[in-house]
Design brief:
The protein is of the alpha+beta class. It has helices at 54-66, 132-141, and strands at 12-21, 26-32, 41-42, 45-47, 76-81, 91-100, 113-120.
């Protein structure tokens, strides 16, 4: 780097999201209790804490927000989403995971979720928060 060049560092936040699906083609969504997208439906997920992997964060966030417990080996990576404008709060990179859970799995909203609900894949809310529609689409098309 020359004396006339300057370095620009961007703060990047690391998150994990979960697409929890049932064999009868329903997906678990939470209604966000906080901005941004307060009141909108979204996938369960959140920040990766210090000392944990995105896989561990995905399992933890799913349990904290919905009461659904899965082991890390029950999660399959669906992909990484890193578009610079995917979150209005700044740069967020998320690793999304898929979990297939029994159709009778009980849910309880908690943590950042105002409520949690199973949605049929053919009758989803019109708008999902952030880029969660794209994440959901990618996860569903890659899940048998």
């Amino acid at each position: 780097m020359t004396e006339t060049e300057t370095e620009t560092f961007e703060t990047i936040r690391y998150t994990a999201d979960v697409v929890a699906l049932t064999p009868d083609r329903e997906v678990l969504l939470i209604q966000r209790g906080w901005p941004p997208h307060e009141g909108a439906w979204a996938l369960p997920g959140g920040h990766v804490d210090a000392g944990e992997t995105s896989l561990e964060a995905a399992a933890r966030e799913l349990e904290e927000e919905t009461g659904v417990t899965v082991t890390a080996d029950a999660l399959r990576q669906a992909g990484v989403w890193d578009a610079p404008d995917r979150d209005p709060r700044g740069r967020y990179i998320t690793v999304a995971y898929v979990a297939v859970v029994p159709a009778d799995t009980t849910i309880t909203a908690g943590d950042d979720a105002r409520t949690a609900r199973w949605w049929p894949l053919d009758a989803l809310p019109q708008h999902l928060a952030f880029d969660h529609a794209a994440i959901l689409n990618a996860a569903v098309t890659s899940t048998p």
